Amino acid sequence: MKFYELSRQERLASLREGGQLTAESYTYLLEKPALNESILNAMVENSIGQFNLPFGIADHFLIDGQVYFVPMVTEEPSVIAAASNGAKRVASSGGFTTVASEHLLKAQVIIHGVTNHDELTKRLTNAEAAIKRVAISARPSLVRRGGGVRQIEYNQLPEGYEELALWIDPVDAFGANMANTIAEAVAKYLQVAVLQDDERILTAILSNTGEKMTVTIECAVNWSQLATDQLSGEEVATRIAELNHFSTLNPDRAVTENKGILNGVFAVALATGNDLRAISASVSHYLQTTSTPVLSQWQLDHEQQLLRGSLTLPLPIGSVGGAINSLPATQISLELLHNPSAKDLMSIIASVGLTNNLAALRALVTNGIQAGHMHLQTANLAIQAGATGDEIEVLHEKLNQVSQADLTLAKKLLQQLRNEG
């Protein structure tokens, strides 16, 4: 049987037998224990419980030569199905390849009351060695792990503002807390040792720009992998490239295509304990500063009969630290991904975004998005109608046999099912 045809228990058993899950992780997912009170109270203020979302697996991913079962947390039925579908087509053509990746976090020390920018910049430049020493003393453990301040920039701004930018290598963490600690230590040093007259520190804080936390991944899909019963692979590939190009001309279409990419990105980020707000902010900034409104690119290669895709994405994420280390399910997600480095995790997340994009574009230019989408949504419709236990699957199948399923019909079929039972 195919992976998606197995029961939840059978999927877990398959992952355990294949070595993707330890016996401890298998038991945890099988028994679904609640987070204990100490974790809940430590992670959020005024805790009243926990909010559950479905935790699933997308298979068939081949990324930089490594096979992955990718954990995804989402309430949307079609996201994991689309990811697995697209990944299978890409894997058959060689998989995803990381082209470029960098993982530097920016911290800002903002100075106000500057009257002579050139003179202040000179003082800051002369103090650069001391600034680096202060940064090291603020987080010496970061340097021991191979990270630390990699670049310092001085940016003169209007109305008496100047920015000292610290570009920090947080190794495998996202690094928000360490960036803030370093920035605040540097700010205190500057106020005492460097600033003069009316010059004062306004604040010291990380930036969510994501400018130097980016990854670029590529894939190539054989036209034969895109064909339908009615359309040749070349025709489908041509339509995908055309629709993607239309997104560069039309912001309304571009924002929807980007949302489809983020369906996959957010689902993996959530499963691995990363900050969706930080990703959202950095993607917004990236789109504002680039020349195209759409994140992905799909182009035809007629000579080799390939559809070539690429995605460049800012991903301010980590694979250690914060909630990542606190949540048991997050640790299981990372276990499934072979405990990746932050850069490896960036490649995985971006690959899922691009494969969700491929699956959505293929659906849009062939049968339309609703055919597969509503087939999966009818399970939710069955739940809304009041189905429980085994009734859900039976009603789900009945609803998929009609052309237009709605809640009224679902309730009617459920009552018939119960009468028959």
From TrEMBL:
First-level EC class: oxidoreductase
List keywords of the entry alphabetically: NAD, Oxidoreductase
Q: What is its EC number?
A: 1.1.1.88
Q: Which InterPro entries match?
A: HMG_CoA_Rdtase, HMG_CoA_Rdtase_bac-typ, HMG_CoA_Rdtase_cat_sf, HMG_CoA_Rdtase_NAD(P)-bd_sf, HMG_CoA_Rdtase_sub-bd_dom_sf
Q: Which GO terms describe its molecular function?
A: hydroxymethylglutaryl-CoA reductase (NADH) activity
Biochemical pathway? Metabolic intermediate metabolism; (R)-mevalonate degradation; (S)-3-hydroxy-3-methylglutaryl-CoA from (R)-mevalonate: step 1/1
- Keyword Oxidoreductase tagged: yes
Superkingdom of origin organism: Bacteria
Q: Which reaction does it catalyse?
A: (R)-mevalonate + 2 NAD(+) + CoA = (3S)-3-hydroxy-3-methylglutaryl-CoA + 2 NADH + 2 H(+)
Tell me where the signal peptide lies: none
Protein family (similarity comment): Belongs to the HMG-CoA reductase family.
What's the protein called, per UniProt? 3-hydroxy-3-methylglutaryl coenzyme A reductase
What organism, scientifically named, is this protein from?
Answer: Lapidilactobacillus mulanensis
